[in-house]
Amino acid sequence: MKTSKIKVAVIIAAAGEGRRLGADCPKQFIRLEGKAVLAYTLEVFEAHPQVGPVVVVVSREALPWAQASFGPRGGFAKVKAVVAGGDSRQASVAQGLEALADWPGMILIHDGARPMVSPQVIDRVIQGVQEHGAAIAAVPLADTLKRADAQGQVLETPARDHLWQIQTPQGFEGPLLRKAYAQGGQKEGITDDAMLVEALGHPVFLVLGETTNQKVTYPEDLQRFQQWLRAQGVQKEPQMRIGMGYDVHRLVADRPLILGGITVPWEKGLLGHSDADVLTHAVMDALLGAAGLGDIGRHFPDTDPQYKDISSLELLRQVRDKLVAKGWRCSNLDATIMAEAPRLAPYLLAMEEELAGILGLDAHQVNLKATTWEGLSFVGQGQGMAAQAVAMIIRDKDNAKEA
Ligand code: MG
User: Fold this and answer.
1) pTM score, whole prediction
2) How far does the centroid of ligand 1 lie from the alpha carbon of residue 282, in Å?
């Protein structure tokens, strides 16, 4: 095969709502070993040296989190846009084409739910387009085909010699594909992109696909994909992660002192937008950090009036739910409160029970300590308090949800 250095743009069609797998999300978003099927698909194109910009088309419903998960923020540097598709595959690809309006060269279209596509198949499609202007991946039909009537009675058995099963990628010179969509984009009964190009009278050529390049549609496909991943040596993602949190608040008169959800009798309290529970804030940052979810400032901005004077325990509940949604739960917590006064030892057990209750832990899985700063610095001179926490989180398969 000649080595050509041309770059190609790719449209990944992932707007389908198919839930035939029985999952609570479309097939391209099902997660295996911690990663969505679509992410595996994108990785193949990310790694291909001839692939330039990639546009991912998803449903309107999936757009917000798909933009976070599959754009550059999700680690896919080549993805220049994640856009919402239309009611049909054609309408969706048309949206992808629009996002590539300034791309003059070759465009490949690939199904988001075909994660096992190999670089070699992509190479063959690119070469086919260079030679013919339009090329699609296909495999010879292995099974006998029958045509039947509505009652299931066989009408005929077409010879399968020249019949091929069509896959993606389907590749086209950009201007040809745009013309095909401009002229035939609304036609009924169009099941692949090549049909629109064929309708222009432009020849479309088949290149050899691979039998492994299957769509993940039925449960047995998912199993096959799982086996394929294992054969590729894909490592299971870690089942355990750790995070740390740190927080400081100023001490002022006329505020209650709330630590770990417990009101501690004292002449001063901590100043902040919420109840300024410095311990619970450090705990939340440790949990969010462990799950790779940033920090509390990102989730509960102190410019947002809905968090004014809110109990930090309520925010901790929300943090717990965010972890559960990602398939994690806390397994233990260790934290230190830094305060010169009052003496906190008598309250630590109550705080442990409070935090443990929210996180679904036994009190012994939450360990709290208090220390002074020996009269030194802002803590030692009673100007403020600080807290530090570490949290361990573990995979909770039963609760693992999408996204
Ligand atoms: Mg804070």
Assistant:
1) 0.62
2) 7
